[in-house]
Amino acid sequence: MLASTHLLGNKNYKQLATELRRTVLKMTNFAQSSHIGSNFSSADILTVLYDIADFTPTSNGMTKDIVVVKSWNAANVYACLVRRGLLPQEAIDRYGEEGTPWVTILDPVEYNGIKVVPFGTGAMGYHLPAAVGFALAKKLKGEEGTVYCLISDGELNIGSTWESLLIAGHHKLNNLVVLVDFNGFQAMGKTKEILKFPDFTIGDYSKMGWDGCGWDGHNYAQILQALKLRENPSINFMNTIKGKGVSFMENENLWHYSHVNNDVLAKALGELNAI
Fold this sequence. Notes:
Elements: E1 7-8, E2 11-12, H1 13-31, H2 36-41, H3 43-52, E3 66-69, H4 74-83, H5 90-93, E4 109-111, E5 114-117, H6 127-141, E6 147-152, H7 159-170, E7 176-182, E8 185-186, E9 189-190, H8 191-194, H9 202-207, E10 211-216, H10 220-226, E11 234-239, H11 262-273
Helix pairs in contact: 1-3, 1-4, 1-11, 3-4, 6-7
């Protein structure tokens, strides 16, 4: 059985995710940017994903594994890539600073000739189509590697997401792993109140050619299982808590757009430092 903390060197994923949340909190305070709630809900998922992904460069300037992440989680992505040595420290230190490439809503980023952030956009519903395109291209070219895609539950409101599910199932893109940050909120309220998501079963996804499963998005053993390739493309509903890790941010949609001022920074760091 996998250990729930999964040791990495002399650290474990819980420690790494807590460090990530501290870093992202400081980044959003520096940039006076938003989306701290969804950065925190996906921090555990991305801690594991950016650890296990194979970023070996390929001849076309891409990487063996390709990671597409909802673009409003830019702070998480930059911090994880810095940890892997794939971006410079200034991606953290100058996050959101005018004139730098470290924008608060992801754009594609190439560093040292490698496309470490292969796709970015401010709009919902484009991330899965891009990931499906990358996965299909790999299949057609006979290339090895997995395409991982983290989307929000709000993106399940978008038609292009469902078109992409159909296309991936039709083409049997079993090199594609999709993770849904299912935190129950989107910009203007609870997801089920904005547009109720159908109560699909795993069997409904299998009819579209997918393997579907639900997981605890804060349990590291379950996250590792979710990231495994399956017979078909897989969609993994990662049940998460928006604002996870800071008590006054958890399940409070105020922290979708609210900025982290210095008082909030100190209070939140106090909680994270106590973990």
